[in-house]
């Protein structure tokens, strides 16, 4: 009977106050691109931008990309691999428990991922991936990264600001609640979102 590596991760959107974070479990034997789709689904990253994982430990930069070389702004001596050729547990594990996920190289959204626990089981009795807890909404696409998100948060707190009506029009009157996190809804929508992202990136329409 084959063993399965159940990984429990803590993740957070870097630079946000208050924190926007998720704790979740995945099958560590899945390819690394599957971890990317989970993160994108959990943080409202749905417009198909380029992404990579970065291992910044030990003074060396290792980049895991859709195709080695797609992250053109990295230093020339970075070591590059494909996210399709590496399993999750071969990249992030007890010896190397931390990775940075970077989405949309223009806005440069960063999600720090930390391994909390690894359990080896004979059978996967629970559906994977599974979100356990979290706080905060996620990103808003095309908002100039985390600094833009924080400015947007300040604008929401001041309805008389000059930008308030602009964003009301942009969101057609349905401004997002940046403090909102619905665990049940997150889990119920997770697999459909992952399937959509997988089809998009594996077909290569980016």
From TrEMBL:
Gene3D superfamilies: MM3350-like (3.10.290.30). PANTHER family: LEXA REPRESSOR-RELATED, TNPR PROTEIN. Residues 6-186 form the Plasmid pRiA4b Orf3-like domain. Coiled coil: none annotated. This is Plasmid pRiA4b Orf3-like domain-containing protein. InterPro entries: MM3350-like_sf, Plasmid_pRiA4b_Orf3-like. It comes from the Bacteria.
